[in-house]
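Researcher: Next entry in the queue.
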Amino acid sequence: MTGHITNREVHSPGVAQPDPWDEFFSLFLDPTRTYSCAFWTRPDDTLEQAQLSKLDLVLGKCDLRPGMTLLDVGCGWGSAILRAMDTCGVNTIGLTVSRSQYRYVRDQLADRLVRGRPCGQVWLRGWEGFDGHADRITCIEAFEHFHRERYADFFDFAYRTLPADGVLVLQTIIGYSSDDLRAREVAHTSADDPFMRFQYETIFAGDPLPPPTGRDPQGVSAYAEDAGFTVTDIQPLGPHYATTLDHWADALHAHHDRAIELTGPEIYNAYIRYLTGCADHARSGHIDVMQFTCTKPSTEH
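Model: Structure for this entry, 301 residues:
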């Protein structure tokens, strides 16, 4: 396994084979296979309970109503669209560029169809290849894997896809420049830079994480506003992110031998470094996870 250590690539076509990445992630994710920051409403919640609380938080901000269609960009193993079908009575479309995730979600949706649940679909494509419409859009920690030059295109796509009064809820990891850290009185030394470069080069798309606001560099909310959205809420989840990462790192440590058997020591060590390092940087305030609620105006400008 080479290149970025991410599960988001499209795998080669051909006869379906067991994907070691699927099992690797299952070693440290909760049973819903939710690979994003959880949300603790009670300190004694399990990781699974906290992930379901996060999904409910996102879906609640979408203001979903039965019969609507929810598009989830970067749906992973489908936890958001499955939760939306089961709790909100909406139709769902998930987008993924991973063949193994596509197969997994497809099988989950087929089971729900047999039991008469609302309609759910999963498409093996990125958001650039989606030409339909949706009443609501969620994007839960897929944005970090887009190249910076695609940020504006993504928000234009979301705005175009939604109806008047449509809502996009974006959850993403954000970063800060050295100047921002100094302004926030967060200690920063040159020792922090190698880890941040490692994170950009091996986990994300190679670009620095965007700031939440501002114009230089341009922040997430500015990209949304340029597309025509009104950003009605920004909710930081930094402490929850650190706790999520702690849970993942502990679980991966506990499955050390199997993880190395599946992916090799280089990948295992890189993920341990990523999980523990990001937890430290979230606790120190160098990075954060934020939910952006972006609403399309009721009438076009």
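Model: The domain at 20-295 is CATH 3.40.50.150 (Rossmann fold).
Researcher: Noted, moving on.
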